[in-house]
Design goal:
By secondary structure, the chain is mainly beta. About 0% of the residues lie in helices and about 50% in strands. It contains no helices and 17 strands. A 5-stranded mixed beta sheet has the order 1-7-6-3-4, with no helix packed on it. Strand 6 and strand 7 form a beta hairpin. The protein is rod-shaped, with a radius of gyration of 32 Å. The two termini are about 65 Å apart.
């Protein structure tokens, strides 16, 4: 039995001796008269395969293999996240899994941490652009991944004094706001 993710390429071989003619039947994947054995590409599904051979004496023999080939679909990975845009004061990002066809999940938070949860949240430590990847694996072992960048910006704090002392000591001599976090 051969199985795998689509498109599943299967190399067939005829191990019978004395074959003069052959007829391979691959179900909906077609037929072939190649006695040495063709390579067939299968889309998603289960397939029966049969080989009918004729020897030099005109004797015919058929081998039927039911559900011999099983080709599986890939899952589809996707997610959304927020809040975006956000600042370092609100760096806890919620992730919503929008994938389908998966049974196992692995989140990679820009190399800082990983999680096998279906969905959840992560708090990023500082400002910057972070790439988050989600790897989704089906029960049959087929995998898909997707990644998105997210931005954690700086927080600008404006301080405006309510008084000033213009006494020449270089401390609070001018009435003006100051901005923290501005580069």
């Amino acid at each position: 039995q051969s199985s795998g993710c689509e498109p599943l390429i299967v190399d067939f071989s005829n191990t019978s001796f004395g074959s003069v003619s052959c007829l391979w039947d691959f179900g909906s994947a077609g037929t072939s008269t190649d006695c040495s054995g063709p390579s067939i590409s299968y889309s998603v599904g289960s397939y029966d395969v049969s080989l009918t051979i004729t020897d030099a004496n005109g004797c015919v023999n058929t081998l039927d293999s039911l559900n011999m080939i099983n080709s599986f679909a890939y899952p589809s990975a996707d997610f959304s996240f927020g809040p975006q845009p956000t600042t370092v004061l609100n760096a806890n990002i919620e992730f919503t899994n929008l994938s389908y066809g998966g049974s196992q999940y692995m989140w990679d938070f820009s190399g800082l941490d990983q999680s096998p949860a279906y969905e959840g949240s992560y708090t990023f430590p500082d400002t910057g652009v972070y790439v988050v990847e989600l790897l989704v694996t089906s029960a049959e072992g087929c995998a898909d991944s997707i990644s998105y960048p997210l931005v954690i910006g700086p927080e600008l704090l404006v301080y405006t004094p309510n008084a000033f002392t213009p006494d020449g000591d270089s401390k609070n001599d001018v009435f003006m706001p100051s901005v923290l976090g501005y580069v």
